[in-house]
Design a protein that fits this description.
This protein has 482 residues and is mainly α. 65% of the residues lie in helices and 4% in strands. The protein has helices spanning 6-27, 41-53, 68-80, 84-109, 116-127, 136-157, 163-177, 185-201, 206-256, 265-287, 291-307, 320-330, 336-347, 350-361, 365-376, 380-383, 391-400, 419-432, 453-459, and strands at 386-389, 436-439, 460-466, 474-479.
């Protein structure tokens, strides 16, 4: 496989791209042109990208706690082709490129058409927790996969890693740092194994090893510096300060606060815990203790540790590249029944995933069509003065019409974790003086903590209610003309 021609490799990539676009059209609910759902985290990223195109400052005008790379990606894609198509096409290219790297990894172990086996298992591992698309874990797949490829190739082929490759590993880690730093567990574990192995075996001098690690750090630092410089040039020193708060400082507050957890976290942890246990058991039983086995095991353990305890399914996306390495390594030492077992562990839920997809593609269609009617009655001038206290639902309504909210905090639960955000919202409500308010509750029941309850009760009147109890409802309030 390593001798495949350049033309052949392009053919492999184009085939992977076609396959990627085919299943993403069905499963990437927040991006596919076939659906109307805007997503949860995905709609937040789309909103900040859209806000950047409208001249607003990320973290300052619209706040979220991910790294800036995800917002730059969403801004670029929506600038390239407005709406869903730009994001969908670039997203598919990203996933196809990551899958191609998986093919390269598998080709290190398997010199036949069976190279497809670990790639398919990696795709199943990813597809099982694919729902919205456009998540930090998915944009992290390519840099994570490249890092693993560099170190796995080093141990499989006993090939020296070039300075360029070390630098690109650092750049890749910089990308992941400014997406979601937790996603970087596997590359960090690979670097640790590389360092300990060569220190123990004394195969390279400490000076040379330090130069290699410094080159990785240099690549990481260069990417971080370029990102910070771009933010400074676009938004000034305040933009950099707000980025640091959103990306790092707020996340310490986030970790120390009570957090929502996935209701099915026991199931998702059990599934990936069981599949990981089976794969690692086969590896160590069949190949005993080898450097590569230790690397794979440490990448799994490090990734699970970085996932945390909330158990959201999308977190487990980062296990897919490690699973490709592990199953490719297993290929030549397992019989056909063991291969079938590993395949079926990941495959058995895939048909159900595609069977349920039509529901996800058009979920809440009637609900959002009714909200569209409300937005369409709002004048063009007033559409730019809408305050959203309805989190994801409010963002979906606005995003469907190419609008962004005037308040800073998009997700109301973040206000419970930061006095700084609460203060900022309360000050901006009087300053902005929004014309429209969207909220989950009637103001007779409760008023969001970011709003002035006295001002709201006197200055705003209910205009529309979408949905009926006991289900989801949205309330639209408009400022009373005086």
């Amino acid at each position: 496989m390593n001798s495949v021609s350049v033309k052949g490799k392009w053919g492999v990539f184009l085939l992977i791209l076609v396959v990627t676009m085919s299943y993403q059209l069905i499963l990437a609910f927040s991006l596919t042109p076939l659906g109307i759902y805007e997503g949860c985290d995905s709609v937040v990223f789309k909103q900040i990208g859209l806000a950047m195109l409208q001249g607003k400052v990320p973290y300052l005008d619209l706040f979220d706690h991910k790294g800036p790379v995800i917002y730059f990606i969403n801004a670029f894609c929506q600038w390239l082709i407005p709406g869903r198509w730009g994001l969908f096409l670039i997203f598919c290219l990203n996933i196809a490129a990551a899958t191609y790297v998986w093919w390269l990894i598998a080709s290190l172990f398997i010199k036949s058409r069976s190279v497809i086996w670990p790639v398919i298992i990696g795709l199943f591992s990813y597809i099982l927790v694919l729902s919205d698309g456009n998540l930090t874990e998915e944009w992290s797949l390519l840099p994570i996969s490249y890092c693993l490829y560099v170190f796995v190739r080093h141990f499989v082929e006993d090939r020296e890693i070039s300075v360029k490759a070390f630098f690109l590993v650092g750049v890749s880690m910089g990308v992941v740092t400014f997406l979601r730093i937790n996603n970087m567990a596997a590359p960090c574990c690979a670097i640790l194994v590389y360092t300990v192995y060569h220190l123990y075996k004394k195969t390279i001098t400490p000076t040379r090893l330090m130069k290699s690690l410094f080159t990785i750090f240099l690549g990481w630092a260069c990417f971080i510096a370029v990102c910070c410089l771009a933010i400074w040039m676009l938004y000034g020193s305040q933009g950099v300060e707000e980025m640091i708060y959103g990306t790092f400082t707020f996340n310490f507050e986030y970790m120390s606060a009570p957090q929502a957890v996935a209701t099915d976290r026991a199931r998702v942890y059990s599934f990936y815990g069981l599949t990981t246990l089976v794969i690692l058991s086969l590896l160590f039983l069949k190949k005993k203790v080898t450097t590569l086995n230790v690397l794979i095991a440490l990448c799994y353990v490090g990734s699970f540790a970085a996932l945390g305890t909330k158990g959201w399914g999308n977190y487990f996306i980062i296990l897919a590249p490690v699973t490709v390495v592990a199953t490719a390594c297993l290929y030549d030492v397992t019989n056909r029944w063991q291969k079938a077992l590993v395949f079926l562990m990941f495959f058995w839920l895939i048909p159900l995933k595609f069977y349920m997809a039509p529901i996800g593609l058009h979920q809440d269609q009637t609900f959002y069509e009714e909200t569209d009617q409300v937005i369409q009655k709002i004048s063009e001038e007033e559409r730019n003065r809408i305050w959203n206290s309805a989190s994801f639902d409010g963002l979906t309504i606005l995003n469907r019409h190419g609008l962004t909210q005037v308040n800073k905090v998009m997700l109301q639960f973040q206000l419970l974790m930061s006095d700084r955000l609460v203060k900022s919202e309360r000050e901006s409500f009087d300053r902005i003086n929004p014309v429209w308010l969207i909220t989950y509750h009637s103001f007779q029941e409760s008023v969001p903590m970011s709003l002035d309850s006295i001002k709201v009760s006197h200055d705003y009147a209910l205009q529309a209610v979408i949905g009926e109890p006991p289900g989801r409802q949205l309330f639209f309030y408009k400022q009373i003309e005086k």
